[in-house]
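Here comes an entry:

___
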Amino acid sequence: MIQRIQTVYLFLSFVVTGILSLFLPLWTLTNGKEYLASENQIYTILFGLSTALSVYSIIIFKKRQTQFVLGRLNIILNLILLGLFVYRSLNLSGETIAVSEKGIGMFLPIASIVLLVLANKAIKKDEDLVKSVDRLR
């Protein structure tokens, strides 16, 4: 349901991982060319999986427990992606191996993680509300 706040958070996570990752550069090479996530197959697959998990979580809005678990899996996936970016930036720091400057695209997994944590918090709040209403019956 679109009126639930976790759906908004999941949609924003979809926008960050699915759309912004296509346009924002991860880093700039020394020759001035921007390196996008779509140029590396591993980054493309991980961003695609994260996007698919966000969309699927939006679709199964009636199954809050499954939605919560998928949110956690998506957070782990984004942590792996962030770890790959940090590893790459630490190994290719400076001007030594054709990397000139880090781009804003390297921070996309952080934004997605924050949005997914907020979504999971809202899902948990909804689940607690439903359980408390069931106790009163």
In short: The beta strands are 27-29, 34-35, 99-102. The CA atoms of residues 45 and 80 lie 12 Å apart.
